[in-house]
Design a protein that fits this description.
heterodimer; A: alpha/beta; FAD/NAD(P)-binding domain; Arc Repressor Mutant, subunit A; 5-stranded parallel beta sheet; 15 helices; 24 strands; B: mainly beta; 1 helix; 8 strands; 6% helix; globular
């Protein structure tokens, strides 16, 4: 590290997925020593998540076609040890003016930092449907994680429902794991998926891989239904089946496990606490923290990378992680290769254009909102149903999300609206006849995830070094 | 029938724990959620209506899988590694704090 750099606090990277790892490697290469904080016990993020112990399966089985990328990133991060301060099993639960509050190994610390790269990732986007809280219904991402990281499958006869590329990938992975996949139910009509052909020239490998997945599943007898409506998961104390409408006709399928998800949703809570400006994104129907092409947020010294700043996938996450790190390095007055920065931005533009095609192919089924029965649970934590939201909006004349939260308790539970927030916004927009951009978004609140009470009892001093 | 089925680590080292007082066995490398759901078909009752729940996101986001250890400590099952001797309570407590 240079003498000048020694006088300044370390940069902080939140998240050790593809974006965080590339950001860390880039900072280290520039002679900086970042602190990397990650909730997981090992690096990789959700996409390249590692098992808790070796389980006899190789990377090819675990990560499929992405195995070389997963292995490269795991190896790269292992090679950085000693050149950065890595805090696994650690949650950043608040951010304020150059200090991060973290909960780590049963303790609490306050980390001063100079330069912050948020690589917080994403989770499944959900629109509640009847029965989605039944045991045995997992998110698509959850279905995939339990298979790759735990070597467990969510049933012996499984239905996957929702939309998006993950729907097909997870169904195929389960089939390859030897599980009976009864059906894939896609909210998107087949006509929408024809948009994928536009991506064929630019990203042939990805488009053809998806086509191959579907062909292989069809050969194994997996049923495919497109443009489904009025989806419900059925069962008394656990999932026993699904029903749905397709071309006006109701169909039932028996199953003992279901994966459900409608694309992905960025984890933006920390960007909010960092004070980043947000703007409504029409394509994803969500408010996103604003970033320029160099991954600078509206707050000096705060940089945004990976899916946490807008869904673009793991390859883009690596590139935006590196690009964010280059900006941080430049802003510290150190030299960067402008050619490299330009190349990353060019590649990212291509992937973002591809992502636009993907989103056209698998549109979010906001039309499902109107069909939702009033007793459909929206908020898993506080158990607020569709009627609870519609009634609160009607009775109190509510037109904005934070008022809705105050009155209905939606988004006030343990998940802080991570799961229900976008659905609640859709419901409020529909019931007030306003565009979803007009109902606003839930404000971020610390702690961003539940903490044991003992953390609150301690008020440690701010430390500048991650190593104690 | 349990919700989860193992396709790997079937012969991994057994780890003993208890679920609502009943002795159970998981495998080394399990999360607490996997250990419970490879045995049972529910995790906990929901807070208000006591509907059965069994987690959802498996990535520490949805907060649907919090359970209580006998010490009183609350843990998120999907992100807590199973440890030998864990005593887990997943039943709802009544107003006196006794498992219902």
């Amino acid at each position: 590290m240079s003498d000048a750099a020694k006088d300044r606090a370390q940069p902080l990277i939140v998240g050790a997925g593809p974006a965080g790892i590339r950001a860390a490697a880039t900072l280290v290469a520039a002679g900086l020593r970042p602190i990397v904080v990650d909730e997981a016990p090992a690096c990789g993020g959700q996409i390249y998540r590692q098992p808790l112990v070796p389980d006899g399966r190789d990377a090819r089985v675990r990560y499929g076609s992405e195995a070389p990328k997963a292995e490269r990133l795991h190896r790269e991060f292992a090679g950085l040890q000693g050149k950065l301060d890595y805090l696994p099993n650690t949650l950043v639960w608040n951010l304020s003016d150059g200090v991060a509050d973290v909960a780590t190994n049963g303790g609490h610390r306050r980390l001063a930092h100079d330069g912050l790269i948020l690589a917080t990732g994403a989770m499944d986007r959900i629109l509640p449907v009847p029965g989605w809280t039944l045991p045995g219904v997992f998110s698509l991402g959850g279905s995939q994680i339990v298979l790759k990281a735990q070597g467990c499958v969510i049933g012996s006869r499984i239905v996957f429902a929702g939309t998006g590329p993950l729907l097909y990938l997870v169904a195929w992975q389960y089939m390859k794991a030897g599980v009976k996949v009864a059906a894939v139910l896609d909210a998107a009509p087949l006509t929408a998926q024809m948009a994928m052909m536009k991506a064929l020239p630019g990203f042939p490998a990805i488009v053809l891989r998806g086509t191959r997945f579907i062909a292989e599943m069809m050969m194994k007898g997996v049923a495919f239904h497109y443009g489904i409506n009025k989806l419900r998961f059925e069962g008394t104390s656990r999932i026993e089946g699904v029903s749905f409408e397709v071309r006006g006709k109701r169909r039932h399928l028996a199953c003992d496990g279901a994966g459900f998800g409608l694309g992905l949703k960025p984890e933006t809570q920390l960007a909010d606490l960092a004070g980043c400006q947000f703007a409504f994104n029409e394509r994803d129907r969500v408010f996103l923290p604003q970033t320029d092409t160099a991954r600078r947020s509206s707050v000096p010294g705060v940089y945004l990378a990976g899916d946490g700043s807008g869904i673009a996938g793991a390859d883009a996450a690596e590139m935006s992680g590196e690009r964010a790190a280059l900006s941080l390095i430049e802003d510290r007055g150190l030299a960067v290769d402008p050619g490299r920065a330009g190349k990353l931005e060019k590649e990212l533009r291509k992937i973002f254009a591809f992502r636009n095609v993907l989103e056209q192919s698998f549109p979010f089924p906001s039309q499902w909102i109107a069909d939702l029965p009033g007793d459909t649970m929206v908020c898993r934590c506080e158990e607020i149903d569709v009627s609870g939201i519609r009634d609160a909006a009607d009775h109190f004349g509510i037109v904005e999300m934070n008022r809705l939260k105050a009155v209905s308790r939606i988004g006030m539970g343990r998940c802080q609206g991570r799961v229900c927030g976008s659905a609640a916004a859709e419901l409020l927009a529909a019931s007030t006849g306003r565009p979803i951009s007009a109902v606003g978004r839930l404000r971020g609140q610390a702690p961003v995830k539940p903490l044991p009470m003992s953390y609150a009892a301690i008020a440690p001093a701010v430390t500048g070094e991650a190593a104690e | 029938m349990p919700l989860l089925h193992r396709v790997a680590r079937q012969n991994e080292v057994p780890i003993g724990f208890s679920l609502n007082g009943k002795p159970c066995e998981g495998r080394r490398g399990d999360t607490l959620l996997s250990a419970i759901l490879t045995i049972d078909e529910r995790l906990r009752p929901s807070d208000f209506s006591h509907e059965p729940r069994a987690g959802f996101c498996q990535m520490s986001a949805c907060q649907d899988c919090w359970v209580t250890l006998i010490s009183g400590e609350r843990v998120r099952a999907c992100s807590t590694p199973l440890a030998e001797g864990m005593q887990v309570i997943t039943r709802a407590a009544n107003s006196a704090g006794e498992p219902a």
